[in-house]
Write a structure and sequence with these properties.
The structure is a homodimer.
Chain A lengths: L2 E9 L3 H19 L2 E6 L4 H7 L7 H6 L3 E6 L7 H7 L1 H7 L4 E7 L17 E7 L9 E4 L7 E9 H18 L3 E6 L7 H13 L6 E6 H10 L6 E4 L1 H14 L7 E5 L7 E5 L16 H14 L2 H16 L15 H10 L2
Parallel strand pairs in A: 1-2, 1-3, 3-12, 5-10, 8-9, 8-10
Antiparallel strand pairs in A: 4-5, 4-11, 6-7, 11-12
The complex binds 3-isopropylmalic acid (IPM) (2 copies).
One 3-isopropylmalic acid sits at the interface of chains B and A.
Chain lengths: 353, 353
C-alpha cells in the first residue's frame, strides 16, 4: 500500500485548532481511497522562539526533508515580532525547499456570502500564481544613521531572470493545464523604475513561447480595483512575491473566503517537499476559543493530496467541503454567521466523505 | 479682487477631454464667489516626448513655480513606456515641489452603483494619506548581468525618518482636523524585512505625540481584503508610496468611483504649488470619443479650491457634483451606465452651481 509521510507543523494560535480537523479528514479519505498516511508532528512555533531563541531547531530543514509534504497551520504571535517569526520558519522553508510557486485559488463557493453585489458561485473562479522565493521579500538592506536626524531604512528587491522566468513559465503552463489560455501579469512599471520594467520585459519574452495564450497586464493599483469591479475577467494572474501576496488575500476577500482559502507552496520539480497552508494567519484575536473555521486548513490538505498524486482523494475532500457549506443545516462557524465550533464543522466535513 | 493663477496640464488621452469641463466649472464658481482665476496652459505630454525626447522643457519646473496651483489631467500613452512618461513629468513635479502628501477620499456617492453588496452612501467614507516623494518609488537600482544567465534587476526602496515622520504626522493631524481620532497604518513588516519594521517603529513613535488618536495597523495583504469586507471601520489610512498607491485605487474601486475620485498632491508648508488630478489615468482605450467621466477632474478642482483657501467655492462644486449624480434624469457617462458624453455631464454640473 502506498503510504505518505506528512510533516505537520500546527504553529501558533488557531493553527493548532484547525490542524486536527485537517488530519481527521486526511485519515478518513486515506481509508476510503485505500492509501496509508503517517503524520510526524513538529511543535515549532513562537513559544519555541521565546524559549530557545529559534523558531525551529538548527537541523529543522533536514528533519522536514524526510517527509513527502508539509502541512502548516499558521505562524506568528503578538509577543514575537512578525518579521522574526516568519523569517525563522515559514520563509526559510519556502526558500530552502525551492517552493518558488505559491498557488492560490480564488473561487466563490456555495453557501459563503459574497461581499460583492450580484455574484453567484461560478462567477468568480481564477488562480493566482505568486513568485515565492525572491523579489521584494529580501534581507538586503538595513537601517542607516540610527539615532541621527538623517536616519532611515533601505530595502532592496531582487528579481533574477532565473527566478522570474520560471514563475512566468509556470503561470503559462498552468493556464494550458486548465485549458484557460489567458494570463494576466501584475506590474507597477510606472512607479518601480527598475524592477517592474524588467519583470514586464520577461513577461513579454516568455509569453512568446506560448503564442496560444492571451496575455494582458495591469498596474497593481488598478488591478486590485479590477478584482472588485470585474473579477469575472481573470483566469490565471501572475505576480511577484509582494504583488502576489496582496492579490491572494484580496482574492479571498472578494469571495468572502479569507478563512476558507488555501495556499500551496510548490516545488514543481519535486526535488523537495512542497508545503500547504491556509491563507489565514494565526488570528490571536480568536485563538483559544475553538471557533476558527477549519475549511482553509482542510482545503490546503486537499491541494496537498492533488500534489501527492491522489486526485480522487482530493476531489472527495473538495466535494465534502462544498456539500457541507451548501447545506443550510450544517454547522457554521462565527465567520460564516453561525455559532458552531471548529470541531463541529470539521466533523461534519469528515462525515460527508 | 483676489486672483489665482492656475497651471493647467491636460496631458494625454482623456486628460485633454475632461480638463475643459473642470475649467468651465472653475470659471463659473469664481464668478459666483467673486474671485478671479487665470489659467496658464501647458501642452506637455507624451507627444512632446516623441517630438523632443523630453516630457517637459528643461525649465518646466521653474515655469510651473510661478502658479498658485497645478491642475493635471492624466499622463501616459501606449507608444511611450510608462516609466518614461511618468518619471519625466508627474513624479518630478511631485518631488521638486515637495508634494509629500497624496490625499485621496474614499467615499460612496449617491447615484453611483457600489460594487459591494448592501452598502449605501454614508457607509463608506474615509481618507487615504499616501507618502508621495520617497519609499518604493526610487531610481536606485538597475539591471545586472544583462544578457547572461545570471541577469536580473534590483530596486531599492528608501525610507528616511524625515520623510516617514512628516507623512505620519500629517495623517495624525488630519485625523484631528476631521474630528475622527483614528489612524490605520499599512505595513508588511512580516515580509519586507527592513523597510516596514522601520515604518512601524516610526508609526509607534509619532503616535505617542497623539495620545488622543486611536492607532491600528494591518499588513497590506489583509488590509486590502478588509477594504472589501469591512470598509466601514476606516477613518484615516496612512501608507507608503506604493501601499498608498494600491489602496487609493482599491478605495475608489470599492465605491465604484474610479472615474470619479480625485487626488491631491500637497505641499502642506505651501512653499511650493500643490497639484490636483483625477485618480484615473489617460485611458487610451476610450480616448478620442469624449465619453470619459469628467467628475474626477472636477472633484480634483474642488480639492484645489479648498487648498487655495476657498472652502465656500469648493463646497458649491461638491454640492453641484452630488446634485447632478443623484438626479436620475441628469446625463450619465457610459461608466455610470448612461450614454451621455463628457461635455453634457460637465455642462450639467456647471448648471448646478
Ligand atoms: C501613474 C503612476 C506613476 C501614479 C502613481 O503610481 O503614483 C498613479 O498611479 C497615481 O496613483 O497617481
Ligand atoms: C505571513 C507572511 C510572511 C506571508 C507572506 O507574506 O508571504 C503570508 O501573508 C502569506 O501570504 O503566506
Amino acid at each position: 500500500m502506498r503510504t505518505y509521510e506528512i510533516a505537520v507543523i500546527p504553529g501558533d494560535g488557531i493553527g493548532t485548532e484547525v490542524m486536527p480537523e485537517a488530519l481527521n479528514v486526511l485519515e478518513r479519505v486515506a481509508e476510503v481511497c485505500d492509501f496509508g498516511i503517517k503524520f510526524r508532528n513538529y511543535d515549532w512555533n513562537c513559544e519555541t522562539w521565546l524559549r530557545t531563541g529559534q523558531m525551529m531547531p538548527k537541523d529543522g530543514i533536514d528533519q522536514l526533508s524526510q517527509s513527502d509534504s508539509i502541512l502548516l497551520g499558521a505562524v506568528g504571535f503578538p509577543s514575537v515580532p512578525d518579521h522574526i517569526s516568519l523569517w525563522g520558519l515559514l520563509i526559510p522553508i519556502r526558500r530552502e525547499f525551492h517552493q518558488y510557486v505559491n498557488l492560490r485559488p480564488v473561487r466563490l463557493l456555495p453557501g459563503i456570502p459574497c461581499p460583492l453585489a450580484n455574484k453567484k458561485p461560478g462567477d468568480i473562479d481564477f488562480w493566482i500564481v505568486r513568485e515565492n522565493c525572491e523579489g521584494e521579500y529580501s534581507q538586503i538592506g538595513g537601517v542607516f544613521g540610527e539615532g541621527t536626524p538623517s536616519e532611515g531604512a533601505m530595502q532592496t528587491a531582487v528579481f533574477t531572470r532565473y527566478g522570474t522566468d520560471r514563475i512566468l513559465r509556470y503561470a503559462f503552463d498552468y493556464a494550458r493545464k486548465l485549458g484557460r489560455l489567458h494570463v494576466t501579469s501584475a506590474t507597477k512599471s510606472n512607479g518601480l523604475f527598475h524592477s517592474m520594467p524588467y519583470w514586464d520585459s520577461r513577461f513579454e519574452a516568455i509569453g512568446k513561447e506560448y503564442p496560444d495564450v492571451r496575455m494582458d497586464q495591469y498596474h497593481i493599483d488598478i488591478l486590485a480595483a479590477r478584482f472588485v469591479m470585474s473579477p469575472e475577467r481573470f483566469d490565471v494572474v501572475v505576480g511577484s512575491n509582494l504583488f502576489g501576496d496582496i492579490l491572494s488575500d484580496l482574492g479571498p476577500g472578494i469571495t468572502g473566503t479569507i478563512a476558507v482559502a488555501p495556499s500551496a507552496n510548490i516545488n514543481p520539480e519535486r526535488a523537495y517537499p512542497s508545503m500547504f497552508e491556509p491563507v489565514h494567519g494565526s488570528a490571536p484575536d480568536i485563538a483559544g476559543r475553538f471557533i476558527a473555521n477549519p475549511v482553509g486548513q482542510i482545503w490546503a490538505a486537499a491541494m496537498m493530496l492533488e500534489h501527492l498524486g491522489e486526485p480522487e482523494a482530493a476531489g472527495l475532500v473538495m466535494q465534502a467541503i462544498e456539500k457541507t457549506l451548501e447545506n443550510p443545516a450544517a454547522p457554521r462557524t462565527p465567520d460564516m454567521g453561525g455559532t458552531a465550533g471548529t470541531r463541529e464543522l470539521g466533523a461534519a466535513i469528515v462525515q460527508n466523505i
